[in-house]
Specification:
By secondary structure, the chain is α+β, with helices and mostly antiparallel strands. It has helices at residues 7-13, 48-57, 109-116, 134-140, 200-217, 236-242, 271-289, and strands spanning 20-26, 38-44, 64-67, 73-75, 80-86, 94-97, 100-104, 121-122, 143-144, 147-148, 153-159, 165-169, 187-194, 196-197, 222-226, 249-250, 253-255, 262-265, 298-300.
């Protein structure tokens, strides 16, 4: 499937644009599941000013979808209408100062943890267990192994749909479990994270323990990380197990045998296979336990 080509019109509106703007770009390749259709227009801004210029001149009715590492996302087979924005090289700087780190939102969480370790900044090692970018951690209040983004964020900055530069304190982020209260219209571009003094060797040992636990308990296939949020008082994987869904398959998609809150692409799955499998699991859990699981994985685009 392909969309009408809107790129020439967009480029005509934005003669000073510096980033790459492509029509009908396949974007499944940018996700961990490796499935899904194209973006009608795919934009990779050079830097924050380029992003602001683009958004300021983008028609207000054009939908905007932001993707990062694609580790917690299903792109549906019909693709994504409007514009898909992916931040890249201009948003992956890391600056270490005292016990704080300022990081661009395109950088992987694990790379921030690795920058903190030799600098003796404790409190950020949990980021090494989150398979995504700082931008995703901000939007989802990403957490793992006893830490959450809300615990370490000082402030963040971003660009809103009108191209205005914005800043938000931790309180203004409106964090809750796997949720951020800032409008989806804001694209985060950088964050300041606060750690504390620590011994580099102890931080390295903590990160090694996290890595060992991840490798022992999580599948390494094409996956999207944790599929469902943990309902209050429950573990999602336990509910999935109790409903008899471990190993369940739909087409080329399977509930992981290693960790039943992970869906995996066995090699030939479509986005529809993965989403139908997830909905089947939700139905079975609801019927078995009465608990309604909520998707943690973000699903974008249109079904074919």
């Amino acid at each position: 499937m392909s969309f009408p080509d809107t790129v020439p019109e967009l480029k005509a509106r934005m003669p000073e644009l510096r980033g790459r703007l492509l029509a009908n770009q396949p974007i499944g390749e940018f996700t961990w599941f490796r499935v899904g259709g194209p973006a009608q227009a795919f934009f990779m801004p050079e830097d924050e000013n380029d992003l602001a210029y683009f958004l300021r001149n983008l028609p207000g009715e054009t939908p905007v979808t932001v993707i990062g590492a694609g580790s917690n996302m299903i792109v549906r087979d019909g693709g994504v209408a409007g514009v898909v924005i992916r931040l890249g090289r201009g948003f992956n700087d890391v600056k270490v100062e005292d016990h704080r780190i300022t990081a661009g939102t395109a950088i992987l969480d694990v790379m921030v943890a690795r920058a903190a370790q030799p600098a003796g900044i404790a409190g950020l090692a949990f980021l090494s267990g989150i398979p995504g970018t700082i931008g995703g951690a901000l939007r989802m209040n990403g957490g793992a192994y006893g830490g959450e983004t809300k615990d370490v964020l000082v402030e963040t900055q971003g660009v809103d749909r009108q191209g205005n530069l914005r800043k938000f304190t931790n309180r203004e982020m409106g964090f809750s479990y796997r949720h951020c209260g800032v409008s989806e219209d804001v694209i985060f571009t950088a964050a300041v994270l606060q750690g504390r003094a620590g011994a580099p060797e102890e931080i390295a040992a903590e990160m090694a323990t996290i890595k060992k636990k991840r490798e022992a308990s999580q599948p390494r296939n094409r996956t999207g990380g944790s599929t469902f949020k943990n309902p209050p008082g429950h573990s999602a994987w336990n509910l999935v197990d109790d409903a008899g869904c471990r190993g369940l398959t739909v087409g080329g998609a399977q509930v992981s045998e290693l960790h039943s809150n992970f869906l995996i692409n066995l090699g030939g799955a479509t986005a529809a296979d993965i989403e139908i499998l997830g909905e089947t699991v939700r139905e079975r859990v609801k019927a078995h336990s009465g608990v309604e699981l909520e998707w943690e994985i973000k699903r974008v685009g249109v079904k074919r």
